Known about the structure:
- This protein is α/β, with parallel strands linked by helices.
- Helix content is 30%, strand content 22%.
- The chain has 2 domains: 3-188 and 229-295, Mur-like, catalytic domain (UDP-N-acetylmuramoyl-L-alanine:D-glutamate ligase, 3-Layer(aba) Sandwich), CATH 3.40.1190; 304-436, Mur ligase, C-terminal domain (Protein-Tyrosine Phosphatase, Chain A, Alpha-Beta Complex), CATH 3.90.190.
- The chain contains 13 helices and 18 strands.
- The strands form 3 sheets. A 9-stranded mixed sheet has the order 2-3-1-4-5-6-10-11-12, with helices on both faces.
- One of its GO terms (molecular function) is acid-amino acid ligase activity.
Amino acid sequence: MSLKSSFAAGVGRLSYSVLHGIFNRGSSLPGLIALKIDPDILYHYKDRYDFVIVGGTNGKTTATALAVQALNQKYDDVLYNPTGSNMKRGIATIFVSAPTPKQKGLAILEVDEANIVRIVKYFKPKAFVFTNLFRDQLDRYSELYATWDRMLAGVRMAPEATIIANADDPIFNTVELPNPRVWYGFNDQPSSDLEAPANTDGVVCPKCHHIIHYGFITYGGLGNYFCPNCDHQRPALDYQVTAVESTTTTNSVVKFDDYEYTIPVGGVYNIYNALAAYSLARFMNVDKSSIKTAFETNPEIFGRQEKVQIGDKEMVIIMVKNQIGVDTVLDMIKTDPEPYSFAFLLTALPADGEDTSWIWDCNFETLQDQAIPYYLVGAENYRDAATRFKFGGFTDVKVEPDPAKLIDRMQEIPTKRLYAVVTYTSMRQLRKALADRKLIDGGME
């Protein structure tokens, strides 16, 4: 490492120690400081690790965390970004704050879709793992195929890297690439002939532009798709869900390739995330029993079904950022047999996406048959959320502009559990307040 790079890494490491040790912060600023000193500092880590890049709209953080648990069974040094800080400065922070591995390590990097091309410039990955693509932050990403094009720009810089992709998402099968392909998906249901659901992304056949159909649909536009007008269809699966034994708000019992696993987070969408992690682990020769052990260690995942005890009440923090994310979370929450209250915290800073119109596509109305006794909307854009709930027919919705004050209001809820469905910035604000009160460790990190 050059003198300039060593100095940049040292300053970044020092700033991380101060920010993390004193303020419970530091997921991106240390990397930004290091990059200001040496814009190409990432080049100097390319020989220290094998690299895997995890990309997609939803599920990156959970899939990465579960993959790390599995690959820790084989590798001594697995580096990743647990807070989901997935742009260039966040990636740089990971490296400048980490000790030098004793031998070649493994870095599993959750990377923002638009930043994949900027990261692949510095080191070539062994594999890409792609979870899904849905409409998200339209003010930043534009439409779905524009996002896919940005991701492809990075993929084309690493033609030798294996693409491990969700076969149930039609968009990942739209382009011919030289990369080796590995496909994962669901194969647990009988096949029929279903039309694409309304308000679904990417449902046009890339070959003939006919509307695609499905043998079955898991959620949104994901499932066993085929074109009734030509021969385009879902590719053959290398790794698959062969059975879903049970799914609750806290876990799912499933079979991947006929081997049973308990996944420590609830919802069908998290079965996909676990399957992505499983597929990567199997690709990297981790045996099934080791993966089973890893999944059962129940990692606490930053802001993803994170449970916090506040007095005699439990707050469950679930981060969302788009319509499909909200709808899948609502489907999961509604399986809870116990009484619960519901809060929706909405922010619209650049990290969230500054356009909040997506909340009008969310199916909040499906909560109305759940006899939920307490609703609250909050955070900086609480007015937008309150208007959405008002037009959805909700009455007596409480308002709290300050996410930190939600902690105090836990005492007024009439149930033992509150689901706090939160956008990214409000999640960080809420976690900082919880950490300040010693209710969790780490705060914004």
